[in-house]
Design a protein that fits this description.
473 residues; alpha/beta; 2 domains; four-stranded antiparallel beta sheet; 11 helices; 22 strands
């Protein structure tokens, strides 16, 4: 499809969305700004508000001046699937984006999917992404075709390049993209965090007079780890700690820019990670703290991540939210705050969690159940404090790697096991035999999810799954 046709199609989509969005009597300058800082493979316990040892004063400040979630989840413990959920408000299974798309993939986000950027753009927002995209590398999948005015960054993970220490396939040169044009290959990754931060600050300054949505999905601390000279050797946690401290610096620069431009009290800033730590890389990986396992597993260490939100005058300060919430909830929540009405022609899995963010008295999670998929396999279901694992295999590092080289995975198995996360946060003690009624109820919830989204473990196809985008010649 020619570029002109795609632009025309995009304009038509924007017009259609405008008709679907409610028109609140809010002048553009009164709409809130939104900043989402989404880091890659950071563990739950890597930053000081969650017990981490690296110095992260800016994130600590965010937590003091805002709220900190202790039960916040991504949709799948892997890159592309996690990002798809954040930007569409859907389980990635619903929209067909699974795993981590590689440079040779012919799939990506479908043109009919509605991203958070598109929702906000139709309300007059300026939109930009500086960082890792990972929802398709071909032109039709790039951010500029899905609601973002500006893009600068890597289209997929920073280890998908010729220097990978243990490649499963040959990787082409790693592209650094501006807009839709590759401006450099195999860029100096030591500068990525700085470059993204500089772009973010310039975007804030340029758009201070209109509402904006700024998305900063950092490549770090995904391996290979890189840090600029500003923070090299500055932590007591080695290279990984240096990287965490530079990410904290980036948060500080963004907060400083908001304050400088008089936008502090009009901007909701959200900080989170795309999944748990990649434990296979040993000392180049983070920590899941009290949780079991890490990235690529459906244990809490894989999907429960740090999440901090700050919005002076609008949300309380120095508070902790202990109810379950998730990245799929971000889109409907920000849509509500922006006065946008989501279209009724599709399922959006997320729910508005503003009552939780605002810490309204008695506010509870909007999710009766939360589903843990690995690929298309439904491996666990959560309801309240209860989490039921269905029989499945999972990978566990044995041994872990070191010196930037991955270790090896061993295959482990878990049966039908029930955990009470309020009493057993590490998922160590199976209490299924003591609570057969809970097992039965969670099995019923899981059966409804299989009907809806499918389950490859039982060769089930979901009735409400939408097609993934595919390359058009």
């Amino acid at each position: 499809m020619k570029r002109e046709s795609l632009v025309k199609r995009g304009n038509t989509l924007a017009l259609g969305l405008s008709l679907l969005l409610c028109c609140k009597s809010l002048h553009g300058q009164h709409l809130p700004n939104f900043v989402i800082i989404f880091v890659d493979d950071m563990g739950y316990a890597d930053i000081s508000p969650y017990g981490g040892k690296a110095r992260t004063p800016n994130l600590a400040r965010m937590a003091r001046e805002g709220i900190r979630f202790t039960d916040f989840h991504v949709a799948q413990p892997v890159c592309s699937a996690s990002r798809a959920a954040l930007l569409t408000g859907c389980y990635p299974n619903r929209i067909g984006i699974l795993g981590a798309l590689n440079p040779n993939s012919k799939e990506g986000i479908h043109s009919n999917e509605l991203t958070l950027a598109e929702v906000l753009k139709a309300r007059g927002y300026a939109t930009a992404i500086y960082g890792k995209w990972h929802l398709g590398y071909q032109p039709q999948f790039l951010p500029t075709r899905h609601g973002f005015d500006d893009y600068f960054g890597l289209p997929y993970s920073n280890d998908m390049w010729p220097k990978h220490p243990a490649p499963t396939q040959p990787y082409p040169p790693l592209p650094l993209i501006e807009g839709e044009r590759t401006i450099e290959t195999n860029p100096d990754q030591r500068q990525l965090t700085t470059w993204y931060t500089q772009r973010a600050v310039r975007f804030i300054e340029k758009n201070r007079s209109q509402p904006f949505f700024l998305y900063v999905p950092h490549n770090m601390p995904h391996v290979p780890l890189f840090v600029s000279s500003k923070y090299q050797g500055k932590s007591k946690r080695g290279l990984y700690g240096d990287v965490i401290q530079e990410l904290d610096w980036s948060v500080g620069e963004i907060l400083k820019s908001l304050k400088k431009n008089g936008l502090d009290e009009r901007t909701l800033v959200i900080f989170a990670s795309d999944n748990g730590p990649w434990l296979l890389y040993g000392d180049h990986a983070g920590s899941a703290g009290p949780f079991r396992e890490g990235k690529a597993t459906t244990f809490e260490g894989g999907l429960r991540v740090p999440c901090i939100m700050r919005w002076p005058t609008q949300i309380p300060s120095n508070q902790v939210v202990r109810e379950l919430a998730a990245t799929i909830d971000i889109l409907p929540t920000l849509a509500t705050l922006a006065g946008a009405k989501l279209p009724a022609d599709r399922i959006i899995d997320g729910r508005d969690i503003w009552p939780l963010i605002k810490m309204q008295p008695g506010a509870k999670t909007p999710h009766e159940a939360y589903f843990y998929f690995w690929g298309q396999h439904l491996q666990a279901v959560r309801s309240g404090p209860w989490k039921l694992h269905f029989p499945h295999t999972y990978t566990k590092p044995d041994p872990v790697g070191d010196a930037a080289k991955p270790g090896k995975y061993a295959t482990k198995e878990i049966g039908l096991e029930l955990f009470n996360l309020e009493q057993d946060i590490g998922e160590t003690t199976n209490v299924a035999a003591q609570h057969p009624e809970v097992v039965k109820r969670l099995q019923s919830l899981a059966e409804a999810a299989r009907e809806d989204l499918g389950d490859s473990g039982l060769n089930r196809e979901g009735k409400n799954v939408r097609p993934v985008g595919r390359v058009t010649e």
